[in-house]
Amino acid sequence: AQHHAHVRHDAAAHVARVGQRKPWAMPLVIGSVLGGAIFYGLYAMGKVGPEVAATRALAATDVRLLSTKSAQEARVELNDGSIATLRPETRVTVPKLFGEGTLRTVAVEGAATFAVRDGREVPLAVRAAHGVEVVASGGEFVVRADSGAALVSVLAVRGTPEVRTEAGSRQLAPNEALVIAAGGAMRAPTAAEVRSALCLMPS
Asked: Does 38 or 161 have the greater pLDDT score?
């Protein structure tokens, strides 16, 4: 009887010890999962953060609007030293903190030439209709995205800007032009479209 009582006592003590350890297991598992999720979130934010920040900055109410009327042109120096030449009936949206940190993105509606100030860590990005974005670390390019137009035209004047869309990207050679349709489809321009783009080049 004493032996059985001793065995039951040892078994009960073992069960008690196991039961005391269980509450610690779940918090450790939860902590590990949360830690991994936070780490992955921070890693992902580090990769897409600048693009999201640029989108929010362009949609903010404190943006700087550069615009021209019919038969009017304007040449404006941006905060990063780049030069934007606006053609008639064009609007360029510049975020308030443009040129600071990783924010070097503007948006254009109409037609404009951008002479990019090089030597900056972050390239200049110009957003147009249909999700088109032209990115360049230097050189000069023309973007034409008239209001309501079905096409966006890009002409590389100097340097090799990269055209990005939802469907992919393409790097242009100097004097090369590209036409982008809604949905991101890219094609070479017609002769008339090239002449139209060339008319936008600075004299």
From this structure: 161
Helix (H, G, I), strand (E, B) or coil at 81: coil
Rg (CA), the chain: 29
Global pTM value: 0.73
With b meaning 16 or more CB within 10 Å and e meaning fewer, what string describes 177-196?
Answer: bbbbeeebebeebeeebbeb
CA atoms within 13 A on the CB side of 166: 8
Phi and psi dihedrals of 97, rounded to 5?
-100, 25
The conformation of residue 185, written as its DSSP 8-state character, comes to -
* Rounded Cα–Cα distance for residues 55 and 148 (Å): 21
Interatomic CA distance for residues 119 and 180, integer angstroms: 29
Q: State how far the Cα of 143 lies from the Cα of 134, in Å rounded to an integer.
A: 8
The per-residue pLDDT of the chain, averaged, comes to 82
Q: Is 67 exposed, middle or buried (0-12, 13-18, 19+ CB in 10 A)?
A: middle
Burial class (CB in 10 A: 0-12, 13-18, 19+), 29: exposed
Q: What six digits make up the tokens of 74?
A: 């304007």
Residue 143, pLDDT score: 95
CA gap 70, 89 in Å, rounded: 5
Report the alpha-carbon distance of residue 38 to residue 97 in Å, rounded.
28
